Amino acid sequence: MVGGNGVSSGDGGGNSGSASSGGSHSGSGGSHRGDGGGVSGTGVGSHLAALVECVPNFSEGSRPAVMDAIQAAAASVRGAAVLDRHADAVHNRMVLTIAGPPGPVAEAAFRATVCAAQLIDLEAHRGVHPRIGATDVVPFVPLGATSMQLCVELAIRVGRRIAAELDLPVYLYGEAASRPERRRLPELRRGEYERLRSHLAIEPALAPDFGPNRVGSAGATAVGARRPLVAYNVTLATGDLGIARAIARAIRESSGGLPAVQARGFRTADPHVMQVSMNLLDTSRTPMTLVFERIRQAAAQHGVEVLESELVGMAPAEALVDVARQALQFRRLDADAILETRLLQDALGVPAPDQ
Q: Which listed residue (129, 199, 272, 302) is catalytic?
């Protein structure tokens, strides 16, 4: 995700030196209102065949017990699958990937938000990644044939519920934004939690879409809807943060670089390794291979070697198939050629491409 012109992990900035784990972890937390409750009864739960993803970002990446509790809260909802957890201590941030039918996924995101508000104190939080709240951002993403409008409805309902039940300021962003200037997360995060703490009550432009004109120790939360993206990091063999920032500036769209790329330079846990952290908003416009090669070329101009790449959270199959297609010079290769993809489509009743 980003602050300024930068990015973050799957709606934050990428995370380096991270620990990633799938499935649920032990721990407790979250407020429970019955499996799938709270949202499924509002109308969106009637879309029985729909599937959505939610990638909530939390301002905690160093306390395993807290991270376990937040994940357990999300995993407590029947029908919502916690597919991945990605955490980083330097960013002090954790990203969960949750998928399933709209009602259960929305409930899982809400329970995790409740738990985070109880366990994370923004007054004590320190990390290199920009943030406005204990649960910093909650994006809903349509999967398969699910419409973006359904995810917008989810964002509005979950955002309203967070404000009403947790008394937190909530900002709608992305496709759910109530005004153009709030579509992009960097604009919402400008000045971060500290700016909201000092200016929210006196600056009308900062008024949230839902909730109070004040923040407490849990801060505020951005809730939105967006297309799938790839949160992607590349690490560099240098201790010079300025080089990572210069490369990020050269490749990001807002500075005249590659289309649909957000990027920012960050430190990692290793003082001799820096990171270019990115959100690739549309890999059909700018493939991962092109991004990597531009970073490699820019790094070489600084006399720096690229060490490795890293995904934050999960990526759409098509984005990774595109890497194979280009590297191996396939004339035609798409996600339907992947065995597991077709098995999943068959299980969901999705017809094969030639049917």
A: 129
- Report CA dihedral (176, 146, 109, 280) to the nearest 10 degrees: -70
Residue ranges of the chain whose pLDDT lies below 50: 1-9, 13-48, 355
Residue 218 is encoded by which pair of tokens? 């849990």
pLDDT tens-digit map of 143-157 = 988 999 999 999 999
Based on the residue annotation, tell me whether 91 is a catalytic residue of this protein: no
What is the C-alpha separation between 216 and 172, in angstroms, rounded?
A: 19
Q: Mind listing the domains of the chain with CATH numbers?
A: 19-225 (3.30.990.10), 230-315 (3.30.70.670)
Q: Reduce the DSSP state of residue 302 to 3 states and report it.
A: coil
Q: Give CA–CA dist 262/281, Å, rounded.
A: 8
User: Phi-psi bin for 121: left (phi > 0), alpha (psi -120 to 50), beta?
Assistant: beta
pTM for the model: 0.81
Q: Report the DSSP beta bridge partners of residue 232.
A: 278, 311
